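Quick one: co-fold with N-carbamoyl-L-aspartate.
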Amino acid sequence: MNHLLSIEDLDREAIERIIAQAARFAEVSDREIKKVPTLRGRMVLNLFYEASTRTRSSFELAAKRLSADVVNFAASGSSVEKGESLKDTVLTLSAHKPDAIVLRTPWAGAAALVSQWCGAAIVNAGDGKHEHPTQALLDVYTLKDRLGSIEGASVWIVGDVAHSRVARSNIIAFQRMGARVTVAGPPTLIPRGIETLGCEVRFTLDELDSADVVYALRMQRERMGDTQVPSLREYSALYQINARRLSPRQLLMHPGPVNRGVELSGEVIDSPQAVITAQVEAGVVVRMAVLYELLAGRRGPSSAPGQREPSTVAADEPRQLA
Ligand code: NCD
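Sure, here it is.
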């Protein structure tokens, strides 16, 4: 694997390999010294053109736990504000010879473009409304951890599917792992033709009871015009996941950040069925596994011919730093 641009690039076997590696790294996270030397001497550049709490912090932590050097770049406060283009910014920062670039932008397809401009491994950490593959991987990890197997499970993805890169990546990933996926929400927030991805579509929550897992999405007001929902109050009345709609045997997921009281009621967020915090925890080990998959054993753009490869830890035995 040279880049992680889309979840479509990963077949079931590759997803399972990354999840298994993440489970091995989970053991590292439980230690007092939460570090292995696997990526010592490698450099990971986090390039974020959009707001992020979970994704950026967990990529940073993941790289640091693997002993890589990390440079965090946020578009605000940078020369992007002076008009520097994505291409020029990438080429400028490539002078530091990053081995991997973790990229979040509001533009669909940007990660794929950047992968053609430089020698680093590119990880798509969200490109507009298009894809968010590491979110899908950490959600598969969380579900597998809770359910044992995803095979045959019914997953309902509820809410603002139209603006959600998480929805697109997760529909593909959950189905690849054997789940049946239904998307549900107001017709204005369900993209036409989404069923070509293999999922079912519902415009009401009348059959929500058939779900094993309810995956709620954030109402993405920053990407929405005025016309898509009459009001958040009306949306909540029809589609909010609350104690009345969620049955005690169902698991509740959400990628965060949550609009408390809009797509989820406070009581379900704080209920034992919610695995939202477990999703965040999974983010670190799954991103460690992705960086490991991309960089361990790969020659960095900075290594001269004949230069010795940095030592890597065998896949099945993460080691503590001496
Ligand atoms: C999501 C995103 O940015 O796509 N958040 C995340 O990465 N955990 C979902 C969202 O913003 O609603």
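If it helps, Confidence is low (pLDDT under 50) at residues 302-322.
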